[in-house]
Amino acid sequence: MTIRPPCWEQFGCNQKDCPVGIFTETACWTIPALNWQETVAESFPDKLKKCLVCSCFQKFKTPETLEDMLIQLIGRHLEALKTAMEKNRDQEHSRTEMAIGLSEVFEALRRIASGDPYVRISEDSGLELIAQLKALVNLTARNLGEIVDLSHEFAIGLAEHFDVLHRLSSGDLSARITGTSPVELLESLKRVTNDMIHKVSRQIADQKKAEEEAQESERLISTLMRNLPGMVYRCRNDRNWTMTFVSEGSVSLTGYSPKDLVGNRALSFSDLIHPDDREMIWDQVQTALLRHNPYQLQYRIQTASGSEKWVWEQGSGIYSDEGELLALEGFINDITERKTAEVLIKASEEKYRALVNNMQDGVFILQGSKIKFANDALACMLGYCVAEMADLDFLPLIAPEYREVTADRYQKRQAGESVESEYELDLLHKDGSTRLTVNLNIGLINYQGKTASLGTIKDITDKRRAAQDRKKLESQLQQAHKMEAIGTLAGGIAHDFNNLLMGILGNATLTLMNMDPGHPGYDRLKNIEKYVQSGADLTRQLLGFARGGKFEVRPTNLNDLIQQTSEMFGRTKKEITISLNLQNDIWTVAVDRGQIEQVLLNLYVNAWQAMPGGGNLHLQTANVTLDDSYIQAFSVIPGNYVKFSITDTGVGMDSDTQKRVFEPFFTTKEKGRGTGLGLASAYGIIKNHGGFINVYSEKGSGTSFTVFLPASAKTASTEKTAPQPVLKGSGTVLLVDDEQMILDVGSQMLGKLGYQVLTAPNGKEAVKLFERHKDRVVLVILDMIMPVMGGSETFDKLKSMQPTLKVLLSSGYAVDGQASDILKRGCNGFIQKPFNLEQLSRKTSEALHTQ
Amino acid sequence: MAVVVLDTLGVKCPQPVLKIAVKAPGMTPGDILEVLGDCPTFERDIRAWCRRLGKVMLSVKEEEETAKRIQIQF
What is the overall mean pLDDT for chain A? Predict the structure, then answer.
């Protein structure tokens, strides 16, 4: 299409003045009209007419412009005519095509309208419009089909939902949307619905479960409250404790029903409380509420029947979210029986405590290795306080040597084995050194739910010591009895032996008196005299042991005696070092010096023989005071004693030897070196002096003999003994002895001394003889032991006949109880057989010159 | 076991299906619903509904013109 210039340019008009341009929005009709003339409302001639009358055209018209205009108009008119004719031919063909096409479209639309969206028609047509229309119909049918399918899908989906919802409404919680839809929305809806059903089902199930649980809980609480042996309550926090809820338990607890108590209808709960307890309860509850704590109370109530009950209450405040106290809730229970039991238990416990703690014996409970309980007695026994003993390990309390066996028994007993339940052992005091000998009695018990051991301990330390002392005492007593028996035997032997010696010695002495010293038998007789003297020494020792020889008692300073004897002994035994430790101001002892010297020498010799390689001899004296307990074992009286001890560093003795050391003839020395009488006589002499001798020895270390002699109040005298000459006398002496040998020898010896002699073989004869010759008898030498009439009776008879008669007692025995008694009754002296001429002369002279 | 008849003649799909859905809650297992319809997609829709909801389509009977009678067992 040719684009022409705008009309106003061709016509020479001014566009601004063009009425067409003014009247319509479209500017000049010529230009667009050439292209769109069919759409212009006004006809071409009208337009042209308007141009011709247009002031603008008029204003600018020229012949040239008019010509141009006409040419143009004609050209355009012809062009328009041609086009119109071509169009008329095409339009006739098109009308036919259109009619056929429209009928097809109509049929299709009708079918679609009847509800069939699946109709389709051929889209071929000579007319583009019809072709497009057919395509449009098919498109519409397709679109409609999709919509119909969609609506069906929706409908079926909706129907399924409806069905499921219906089943749900019927209670079928298993109903679910199962179908699968190509529609996304339906699938989403299915998920939502099924989820919703699932959730609702779950909620319903949960709710149902919760309801069931709530019902069960309610039932449980109801059952509990009904069966509880007490009362559950809710009340206000006022002085009446006004109840707003009370369980049925109130009836059995208080005798009042809930309706009596709720709202204080019959009475307030406070009225039930014992008046003395009300203030205490109020204070305790208010204190607990202030701290938002629960409270526990024990108090008394008075029941409807008037009886008093002890109750236990636990409760707490109920608060709003804002913290405001709404009520008190709690539980009250009857504890009367428990309270009564507690009182009984307390009384029982006090009784038990008093019993256990006042027991003399220790009581304890062990669990594991610990002391769980110990009474006062045990704690005191071991030096602890009761609190210190709690949880103390028991094993360290046991003396080390008993620990293993005790622990072993303990474990076996715990394991159920049968072991000794009572035995003795040593415990250690808290000070660690003191030992206690105890008798333990132990057994298993159940203590605080576990196996434990309950034991009693009796302190038998004193009892054990006493038993040991008694045993020792018994042993010593037995020993003493034995020594006594041996002493008697030894005394008898010595007596007879002395008589024999007297005969030998007397004969030897008498023979020697009439013999020239140059005679060949003189020396032999002298030897006989010497041997008899040795034999006499032996019997003297025997008699010393037999407690018979203390007849020259003088107050003596023991220190002097020890110094003299030890000095003399030390001179002969240079290998021995003697050390003295003597008590200053030593007390005096009343002793027969000769005998004590004999004791000392015996002990020195013993010590020397115990130290064959030399050693130390330690001599000590001391003043001691002995009490009852110490001396009980030695059968001596308590008081002041002088003690002297002789201690060597020799070979020592074993215990068996120590036990027998004082026995006569017991010796450990080789044959010929010891008589076995040294210590025996020492024992007898000391015993005869009212003292005692003790020995302590350790094998390999040495021996110590300790001698105790009773102190005397007298002052010691220092007397030097000088050899005495033979003292001759005159007058008649009556010699009484049952031994013919003694009578023979004695009468000859007396004759030698210048006396006239009468002899009698027994007391009876002596009395007769004295009766006849009493005027001339100046002295009677009287034997002690005689048949028919003994020395004692004879003495009394003679004395009764002549009270001033001098009597010299003679015996092969030492001075014993009987001789001592006669001496006390006025006898003038004692002469020990065997005696020689010198001894006889001195004793006879002394007796004659005594007052 | 009851037989219930539902007439959906002249009603266009998916109306028949929706009417069946409304009727269904009143049916008990074993009951038969007999549906009359003439919508061009009537049979197809009923089949789809039965398949989806697990019902048994017992029979399809051609009636006059385009109408059909379909029996459904619940």
Answer: 83
Residue A160, chain B, CB below 8 Å: the answer is: yes
- Which run of H or E residues covers position A132? helix A128-169
- A-chain residue closest to B45, CA distance: A152
Instruction: Give how far B21 is from chain A: nearest CA, Å.
Output: 5
Q: Is A262 helix (H, G, I), strand (E, B) or coil?
A: strand
Handedness of CA A388, A393, A399, A400 (dihedral sign): negative
Mutate to test the interface with A, among B8, B23, B53 (most CBs of A within 10 A): B53
Half-sphere exposure of A751 (CA within 13 A, CB side): 13
Nearest CA in chain B to A151: B14
Residue B40 to residue B16: CA distance in whole angstroms = 11
A510, A752 in Cβ contact below 8 A? Answer: yes
Using alpha carbons, list the distances in angstroms from residue A647 to A364, A623, A650, A697. 49, 17, 9, 9
Q: How many CA atoms lie within 13 A of A247 on its CB side?
A: 21
Most B CBs within 10 Å, among A152, A158, A165, A178, to test the B interface: A152
The C-alpha of A153 sits at a distance from chain B's nearest C-alpha, in angstroms, of 9
- Which two tokens mark A9? 């340019």
Q: Do residue A163 and residue B53 have CB atoms under 8 angstroms apart?
A: yes
Q: Do B52 and A156 touch (CB under 8 A)?
A: yes
- Closest residue by Cα to residue A695 from A730, A648, A736: A648
Relative to beta strand A588-592, strand A639-648 is: unpaired
Residues in contact with A202: Cβ distance below 8 Å, sequence separation at least 6, in sequence order: none
The whole-angstrom distance between B66's CA and the closest CA on chain A is 11
pLDDT greater than 70 at residue A780: yes
For residue A6, give the DSSP letter. P
What are the φ and ψ backbone dihedral angles of A550, each rounded to 5 degrees?
-90, 90
Tokens of A244: 């707003």
Please state the ipTM of this predicted complex. Answer: 0.84
Task: List A residues 171-210 in contact with B (Cβ-Cβ < 8 A).
Answer: 178-179
Q: What is the CA radius of gyration of chain B?
A: 11
Region of residue A592 (phi > 0: left; psi between -120 and 50: alpha; otherwise: beta) = beta
Location of structure tokens 């259109």: A98
Neighbours of A100 (CB within 10 A): 13
Mind giving me the DSSP string for A83-115? Answer: HHHHHHHHHHHHHHHHHHHHHHHHHHHHHHHTT
Span A709-761, pLDDT tens digits: 999 887 766 554 455 577 888 899 999 998 888 898 889 889 989 999 999 99
Side-chain half-sphere of A235: how many Cα atoms within 13 Å? 27
Q: Give pLDDT tens digits for A571-630.
A: 778 888 999 999 999 999 998 887 888 889 889 988 988 898 889 999 999 999 887 766
Q: Is the preceding omega at residue B14 within 30 degrees of 0, hence cis? A: yes
Q: Provide the shortest C-alpha distance from residue B12 to chain A (in Å).
A: 7
Return the closest-CA partner of residue A829 out of A819, A818, A817: A819
Q: Where are the alpha helices (DSSP H) in chain B?
A: 15-23, 42-53
Q: Which of B13, B18, B40 is facing A159, going by the closest CB pair?
A: B18
Which chain A residues are Cβ-neighbours of B44 within 8 angstroms? 152
Torsion of Cα atoms, A740 then A741 then A742 then A746, to 10°: 110
DSSP annotation of A3: P
Picking from A815, A741, A745, A731, the residue whose alpha carbon sits closest to that of residue A780 is A731
Dihedral of CA atoms A598, A603, A606, A612 in degrees, nearest 10, equals -120
Sign of CA dihedral A791, A796, A800, A804: positive
